[in-house]
Protein backbone atom coordinates (compact mmCIF):
# COMPACT_ATOMS: atom_id res chain seq x y z
CA UNK A 1 0.00 0.00 0.00
CA UNK A 2 1.30 3.46 -0.84
CA UNK A 3 2.19 5.97 1.86
CA UNK A 4 -0.40 8.41 0.51
CA UNK A 5 -3.16 5.84 0.92
CA UNK A 6 -2.01 4.99 4.44
CA UNK A 7 -1.87 8.68 5.35
CA UNK A 8 -5.40 9.28 4.08
CA UNK A 9 -6.71 6.42 6.22
CA UNK A 10 -4.87 7.69 9.32
CA UNK A 11 -6.20 11.22 8.76
CA UNK A 12 -9.78 9.95 8.86
CA UNK A 13 -9.37 9.14 12.57
CA UNK A 14 -6.44 11.27 13.75
CA UNK A 15 -5.12 14.82 13.56
CA UNK A 16 -1.39 14.74 12.88
CA UNK A 17 1.40 17.02 14.05
CA UNK A 18 4.62 16.45 12.14
CA UNK A 19 7.82 18.23 13.11
CA UNK A 20 11.54 17.91 12.41
CA UNK A 21 14.57 19.05 14.37
CA UNK A 22 17.81 20.47 12.91
CA UNK A 23 19.30 16.98 12.45
CA UNK A 24 16.42 15.73 10.29
CA UNK A 25 14.83 13.65 13.05
CA UNK A 26 11.05 13.67 12.60
CA UNK A 27 8.36 13.39 15.25
CA UNK A 28 4.76 12.52 14.44
CA UNK A 29 2.04 12.96 17.02
CA UNK A 30 -1.38 11.42 16.41
CA UNK A 31 -4.35 12.90 18.26
CA UNK A 32 -7.64 11.01 18.14
CA UNK A 33 -10.34 13.32 16.80
CA UNK A 34 -13.00 11.91 19.12
CA UNK A 35 -11.30 10.96 22.39
CA UNK A 36 -8.29 13.28 22.32
CA UNK A 37 -5.89 10.40 23.03
CA UNK A 38 -2.42 10.98 21.64
CA UNK A 39 0.50 8.83 20.56
CA UNK A 40 3.94 9.92 19.35
CA UNK A 41 6.37 8.23 16.97
CA UNK A 42 9.87 9.43 16.11
CA UNK A 43 12.34 8.43 13.42
CA UNK A 44 14.41 9.95 10.65
CA UNK A 45 12.34 8.24 7.93
CA UNK A 46 8.98 9.60 6.77
CA UNK A 47 8.01 6.17 5.39
CA UNK A 48 8.69 4.57 8.77
CA UNK A 49 6.49 7.12 10.53
CA UNK A 50 3.60 6.62 8.12
CA UNK A 51 3.89 2.84 8.47
CA UNK A 52 3.91 3.07 12.28
CA UNK A 53 0.90 5.40 12.27
CA UNK A 54 -1.02 3.05 9.96
CA UNK A 55 -0.12 0.02 12.08
CA UNK A 56 -1.24 1.90 15.18
CA UNK A 57 -4.55 2.73 13.48
CA UNK A 58 -5.14 -0.91 12.58
CA UNK A 59 -4.29 -2.02 16.13
CA UNK A 60 -6.70 0.49 17.65
CA UNK A 61 -9.47 -0.51 15.25
CA UNK A 62 -8.91 -4.17 16.09
CA UNK A 63 -9.06 -3.38 19.83
CA UNK A 64 -12.44 -1.66 19.35
CA UNK A 65 -14.01 -4.70 17.73
Number of helices, where a helix is a run of at least 4 consecutive DSSP H or I residues: 2
Rounded average pLDDT: 95
Q: In terms of per-residue confidence, which ranges show pLDDT below 50 for 5 or more consecutive residues? A: none
User: What is the rounded Rg?
Assistant: 12 Å
Task: Tell me roughly what share of residues is in helical segments.
Answer: 40-55%
The major sheet is characterized as: 3 strands, antiparallel
Strand percentage lies at: 25-35%
Number of domains: 1
The shape is: globular
N-to-C terminal Cα separation, in Å? 23 Å
DSSP strand count: 3
Strand order of the largest sheet: 1-2-3
Elements, N to C (H/E): HEEEH
Q: What class, by secondary structure content?
A: alpha+beta
What structural keywords apply?
46% helix, three-stranded antiparallel sheet, single chain, 65 residues, 2 helices, alpha+beta, 3 strands
Amino acid sequence: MRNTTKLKQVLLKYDIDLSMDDDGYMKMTLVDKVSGESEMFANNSYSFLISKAYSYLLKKLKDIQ
